[in-house]
Write a structure and sequence with these properties.
The structure is a single chain. The protein has 2 domains: 172 residues, HUPs (Rossmann fold); 92 residues, Pantoate-beta-alanine ligase, C-terminal domain (Pantoate--beta-alanine Ligase, Chain: A,domain 2, 2-Layer Sandwich). The protein is an alpha/beta fold. Strand 2, helix 2 and strand 3 form a beta-alpha-beta unit. The strands form 2 sheets. It has a 6-stranded parallel sheet with strand order 1-4-3-2-5-6, sandwiched between helices. The chain has a 3-stranded antiparallel sheet with strand order 7-8-9, covered by helices on one side. Helix content is 37%, strand content 20%. The longest helix is centred in the middle third of the chain and has 16 residues. Helix 5 packs across helix 6. It is found in: Cytoplasm. This is Pantothenate synthetase. Belongs to the pantothenate synthetase family.
């Protein structure tokens, strides 16, 4: 595995690889790798000649109450996991490499952000599209891989690529789950033993809601009510939201057809869990 740490080296490597006709798959991360990241690599490996993973903790994604300095980092751990999973190139730039001077142009996301978690993270997705625009230009991937665990981020990235005609395929990778269905997340370690038993109810409730929606396409309101009630009755968590939107546009569905995202957020004592399911109603 090759490790590159500055933009010039990365661009030179990409230029040489492109001249040889190499197809490049890209997995952007903020490090502190876990199985969700590795699933992206597993998907990218057979579909590309080279898999490039970036590790960059992007300061523009952090709001006033989110501590950039405290974000977990473990470069040695990340290096080992990336290498063992088959990453070909690990790109680890510093903040000064990605933002060498104050930005003269600021990107603002207008759609797909004022719902779900985005409602409480003002400016977060502006930072996401800014850094991805830079990384896409540096790495010039043929395909970029994103997990559906954060479906809102996938929707925003698809909008970015579509709006600005990036010649990149955005590949949606299914959420990695534990055996009982709980979405894998670094936050799961903060669940108590009892909460750990309760938490799989979230996914099972989502699955039931998806089945209900498929069988009764005209009554999404009652489906969401049943979903909320199931989580509230069977867990000690506080339901923050239970919503359904068209995907990837993230608008309220006027007609129950096409892809519909059903998403939830549940606050336990020390962990806030999000999960979702996408129903394709044709």
């Amino acid at each position: 595995m090759i490790v590159l740490k500055n933009v010039h080296e990365m661009k030179e490597f990409i230029k040489e690889s492109k001249s040889k006709g190499k197809k490049i798959g890209f997995v952007p991360t903020m490090g502190f790798l876990h199985e969700g990241h590795l699933a992206l690599v597993d998907r990218a490996k057979p579909e590309n000649d080279l898999v490039v993973m970036s590790i960059f903790v992007n300061p523009l994604q952090f709001g006033p109450n989110e501590d950039f300095e405290r974000y977990p980092r473990d470069e040695e751990h990340d290096y080992k996991l990336a290498k063992d999973t088959g990453v070909d190139v690990l790109f680890i730039p510093g903040v000064d490499d990605i933002y060498p001077k104050a930005l003269s142009i600021h990107m603002t996301v207008k759609e797909r952000v004022n719902v779900l978690c985005g409602k409480k993270r003002e400016g977060h997705f502006d930072g996401v599209v800014t850094v991805l625009t830079k990384l896409f230009h540096i790495i010039e991937p043929d395909a970029a891989y994103f997990g559906l665990k954060d479906a809102q981020q996938v929707a925003v990235v698809e909008g970015l690529v579509e709006d600005f005609f990036f010649p990149i395929e955005i590949v949606r990778v299914p959420t990695v789950r534990e055996r009982e269905g709980l979405a894998k997340s670094s936050r799961n370690v903060y669940l108590s033993d009892q909460e750990r038993i309760e938490a799989p109810v979230i996914y099972h409730s989502l699955t039931n809601a998806a089945n209900s929606l498929c069988n009764n396409k005209g009554d999404i309101k009652s489906v969401l009510q049943e979903l909320r009630q199931c989580i509230e009755l069977n867990t000690s968590g506080i339901v923050e939201y239970v919503d359904a939107y068209t995907f990837p546009s993230l608008t309220l569905p006027k007609q129950i057809k096409g892809e519909i995202l059903i998403a939830v957020a549940v606050q336990f004592k020390q962990a806030r869990l999000i999960d979702n399911i996408i129903v394709d109603l044709g």
